[in-house]
Amino acid sequence: MSWLEPYGGQWTSREAAHLLRRACFGASKAQLNQAVADGLQTTITKLFAARPLPEPPVDQTSGVSWTSGDNYDPSNGANYYYQGTRAWLVGIMVQEEPSIREKLTLFWMNHFATEGSIVRNAVYTYKMMSYLREHGLGSFRDMVKQITIEEAMLIYLNGNTNTAGNPNENYARELQELFTIGKGPEAGEGDYTNYTEQDVQAAAKVLTGWRVDRTTKQTVFQSRQHDTSDKTFSHRYQNTVIKGRSDANAGSVELDELVSMILKQPATSEYIVAKLYRWFVNSDVTDVVRENVVLPLASQLATDWNVGPVLIKLLSSQHFFDVKLIGAQLRSPADLVIGILRALTTFQIPTTSEFNLRFRYLISFSTSMAAQQMSLLEPPSVAGWTAYYQVPGFYREWLSTATLPQRNGFTDSLMKLIRTPNGGQYALDSVEFVKTLDHPDDALLLIAELNELFFAIPFTESTTTRLAEDVLMDGGRSYEWANVWGQYVSDPNKDNTNKVRTSLDRLFSYLFRMAEFQLF
Amino acid sequence: MKNQLSQSGLSRRQFLTRTTGAVTLPILLNGIPLKAFDGPVLGELFNTQSEADRVLVLVQLSGGNDGLNTVIPLDQYSTYNSLRSNIAIPENQVLSLSSGAGLHPSMGGLKELYTNNLVGIIQGVTYPNPNLSHFRSSDIWMSGSSSDVNWSTGWIGRYLNNQFPGYPEGYPSATMPDPIAIQMTAVVGLTLIGVSGQSMGMALQDPETFYNLVNGTDVPTGDLPDTEYAAGNVEFVRDVQSKSLEYSGVINTAADKAQNIAPYPADNDLAEQLKIVARLIAGGLKTRVYVVQQKGYDTHSGQTVEGAPTTGDHATLLQQLSDALLAFQNDLAALKVDDRVVTMSFSEFGRRPTSNLSYGTDHGTAAPMFVLGTPVQNGITGHSPDLKDLDNGNLKMQFDFRQVYASVLSQWFGADPELIKSILGEEFSQVKVIKGSNTSVQSDEVASGVRFMPVAPNPVRGEARIQYTLTTETSVKIEVFDNLGFHVQTLVNEHQGPNQYTIPLSSTGLPSGTYMVQLLANGLRLVQPMVVVR
After folding, report:
1. How far is Cα A200 from Cα A179, in angstroms, rounded to an integer?
2. Exposed site from A64, A265, A358, B109, fewest CB < 10 Å?
3. Pick from A228, A246, A264: which residue ends a domain?
4. Residue A259 located in a structural domain
5. Where in chain B is the domain with CATH 3.40.720?
6. Do A172 and A222 fall within a single domain?
7. A164 touches chain B (CB under 8 A)
8. Does residue A222 fall inside a structural domain?
């Protein structure tokens, strides 16, 4: 079958934009042009190329680095540092060169979900996120092992208090239900097809003894808190017995065996690939998609558990570029906010040297995303954002009569002046922005360009005409735009500028409110 | 048919109120199953204003509320204390209720409501083969399914879809200009998903903000993309847009029309949600169901503070819950709409009786549900969970949550047994959640010259008294049916004159269970439930 064969069809800005939306939230006009010029293979190579890690966040007031734990002042409150990290993260997502890394890091942060408001220490959350950023294309096996003993996770799912005398099953359950093998249909009482309640209890015992040391603030294994008995798993794991150990390495050795046992089950690689598929491609995993895409990739993943090659294959496949999958997703708040900002090359986000001003700019975007129900570092639960698992709606979970108006409010606000100490600017200066495009003077071509840049699906001719006449020209003829624009270019005085700005603001406001804009 | 109904002076609401407690008894109208009357005529008759006024407010306690520290089993205090000594509420601080149970000390507000006969507590609610996953168990509660099937529609969604068929096509309409259901969160949950996968409700946070944000969106039109997923997505978004546009005006008007009267607690997210709900109800929205949510009940650790078990995360949550419910109920009363609002809480599961060493509790099973409001049957249904008779370390079921759903659908919304069965997939016996009689029924009974009193005592162990009053001469037939609708015996079948009657009924020989006592007189059909215990 050809589903996973490399895509060899036409390579225009449509296909390039599809790839850049799914891999990195969206792109600027220049980035899009570059991808078209590069072709698919080179674009993929660039998207997956190793890149230097970003500089860590700094304290938004003092500018000092706190992520090592030094300079971290608990009296500021945990949220102070989470806010700093969120703003930092928005900055990275908006300003990174085209790369899959941030979209993938967000995927893993959603997969191995922790809530900042429960972890209550941004040092831990940042550390875990950094691990996933650095290793997100690497070995899933290593990832599971490391995440299990990450400080943030030990706190979040109570691994921290899981001891021989008093096992806490929270992490052991979610490890199987959500992080690795996934929960199957209930086959009997306490039997979830892929694992059973017995396995939850046995896994909890394997994981006893890990905790965050109060003094060093780092994960330690305390062998005297470890359950040294043999752990017997159900028939779902072929009645595997993990031998109890009591030495100082007992924790890592048993964890290693536990992860091996879970990863040996075919259900695990399928679960992970299906989750990647829902994040990057489409929520609808039909039987034929399962057979032709998910299962082949799952067996590839299971050979060495390296994520990168699997994703490369998926994102360069014929299936990925199937025209019916373009626009099959609905924008997440990140796809919406980051996607727009990545395209807005005229917007000057203050540099890191102006750390406080930069923070204030960026936190406003993170706050907008939170209002749209995607608070970074704060997924709603351990299952992550509902849009990636909740049947039957999936991506539709993002959009309701409450959140859609929030999106409209956000996109409108892009054209309002942001006041700063040295004057102010618009995030979307509609006049300056269209000047960076190829055809600011031709209403129909301008709309076609904006369509390509901001929309997954092409406008029909009648839609383009309607937008030009009813919206941009407010009832006038589309060809009259050339005169209006021409007047402004030849004499950019206040009146002429306001005239084009009013028209363009109206157009942008309308475009971003269109149902089609939500497709991704 | 219409004539016969009119002659007996029955409105749907009165008719159905009278069938309160009818478990599986097919409703018969002069001997013909009700279903045979389904159609426009009956629909018109049944869609009375008064019934449409009834509102249900669902309070979702997300995360799995620890029922044992919410309603404390004072009658088994030492066992309770030994299972969870590190988080047990000290006996002398429990707010004692009747029946050997008491409330968490931070729930003074709820205690006040209880004392004023405004709270019903149903003990030990869960379902067979409980699932301990938050997500799965929430889905089970919200869909109303059993634990061995996955349903992608919600129990309220299915009910409302039956009441408003074809939704969203043709809505808002002249008779239903308002949102059918409103969820006071950013997202509409499974509870409200109707049969076509379409949510019967809309998500709303703040009416004013909503109005302002929606203002400026065009009525969505235009071509659809020619690929299936994209076209479906555009249609979906346009539908959300249309709903926002169509409803923003009526919501804003309703919110403007009424102001909250009673004070609400500050820094209480649940109270903020209920505050808006009260305004919208009093402002005249015909919305039938509101869903509000309080998060944070997943208290694996830090449920209580070490050494101070009446404080900690759980105490804070319960305080917020109790304060919010008290304020809401007071406000509804002050706004004079309390007689048509019932509030019900639920959580995906209770927690394990044995606490862990992190001053927390892990996922468990059965827990109490609260039903609040002027119309509710106050008091405690069921008993404190038996802490010495656990199932795998977890509390045993006393009531299936679908019994409570069936009761609410029947007793509050007047849904007939056929409909309830179609919503819940099978038949469930009911518990009493709504007071048996109300003004309209009494006046109707007085007008007809027939009053049928509740069976006493109930539950019955030996002999029960069946009491009724006639103020007119009429033929009377009293029959007993079991919970499958089978005829058990006929007590009376004769012509009687005005008088008070007391008929003895011996329960000897009757298997324990729920029975219906039906009285037919002067064109009326009145039913009283009876529970036989051994």
Report:
1. 13
2. A64
3. A264
4. yes
5. 53-397
6. yes
7. no
8. yes
Q: Which residues contact B70 (CB under 8 A, 6 or more apart)?
A: B103, B104, B107, B318, B367, B368
pLDDT in tens, A13-25: 999 999 999 999 9
Q: CB of A368 within 8 A of CB of A343?
A: no
Topology of B439-534 in CATH?
Immunoglobulin-like (2.60.40)
* Chain A contact present for B389, CB below 8 A: no
Q: Are residues A155 and A259 in the same domain?
A: yes
Q: Does A456 touch chain B (CB under 8 A)?
A: yes
Per-residue pLDDT at A78 exceeds 80: yes
Closest CA to B320 of B112, B107, B38: B107
pLDDT tens digits for range A351-372: 999 999 999 999 999 999 998 9
Residue type, A5: E
| Residues pairing with B490 in the sheet | B479
Q: Tell me how far CA of residue A437 lies from CA of A429, A431, A450, A472, in angstroms.
A: 13, 11, 9, 16
- Please give the Cα distance from B227 to B234 (Å, whole number): 11
Which of A248, A264, A280 is where one domain is finished?
A264
**Structural domain total, chain A:** 3
Give the chain A residue nearest B246 (alpha carbons).
Answer: A401
Q: Is any Cβ of chain B less than 8 angstroms from the Cβ of A518?
A: yes
pLDDT single digits (tens) A121-143? 999 999 999 999 999 999 999 99
Q: Tell me the shortest Cα–Cα distance from B263 to chain A, in angstroms.
A: 26
DSSP H stretches of helix in A149-247: 151-156, 170-174, 197-206
Chain B residue whose CA is closest to A284: B229
Q: Is the Cα torsion angle A449, A450, A453, A456 positive or negative in sign?
A: negative
- B222–A412 CB contact, under 8 Å: no
The CATH label, of 3.40.720, 3.40.50, 1.10.3470, 2.40.50, for the domain at B53-397 is 3.40.720
Q: Are residues A405 and A438 in the same domain?
A: no
Q: Give A 347-376 residues with CB within 8 A of chain B.
A: 373
Residue that wins the pLDDT comparison between A476 and B458:
A476
* CA nearest neighbour of A178 among B228, B477, B135, B451: B135
Mean pLDDT of all residues in A80-92: 98
Query: Structure tokens of B36?
Result: 């045979």
Confidence at B472, pLDDT banded by 50, 70, 90:
confident
Q: Both tokens of residue A339?
A: 């996607």
- List B residues 420-449 in contact with A (Cβ-Cβ < 8 A): none
pLDDT score of B218? 64
Cis status of the peptide bond prior to B172, with omega within 30 of 0:
yes
Residue A311 in any domain: the answer is no
Say yes or no for a CB contact (<8 Å) between B241 and A515. Answer: yes
Is the domain of A170 the same as that of A255? yes
Contacts of B234 in chain A (CB under 8 A): 515-516, 519
Same domain, A444 and A423: no
Q: Residue B441: pLDDT band by 50, 70, 90 thresholds?
A: very low
Same domain, A384 and A485: no
Residue A502 sits in which domain range?
A: 434-518
Residues in B closer than 8 angstroms to A321, CB to CB, are: none
Four-CA torsion B78, B83, B88, B92, nearest 10 degrees? 0
Helix (H) or strand (E) segment spanning residue B73: strand B71-73
ipTM of the complex: 0.95
Tell me the per-residue pLDDT of A474-497, one tens digit each, with 9 for 90 and over.
888 999 999 999 999 999 999 999
Q: Do residue A462 and residue A415 come from a single domain? A: no
Q: Where in chain B is the domain with CATH 2.60.40.2550?
A: 439-534
What is the rounded CA–CA span in Å between residue B514 and residue B526?
Answer: 16
Check B233 against A518: CB less than 8 A apart. yes
Chain B residues in contact with A381 by the CB 8 A cut-off are 134-135
Q: Is residue A355 part of a domain?
A: yes
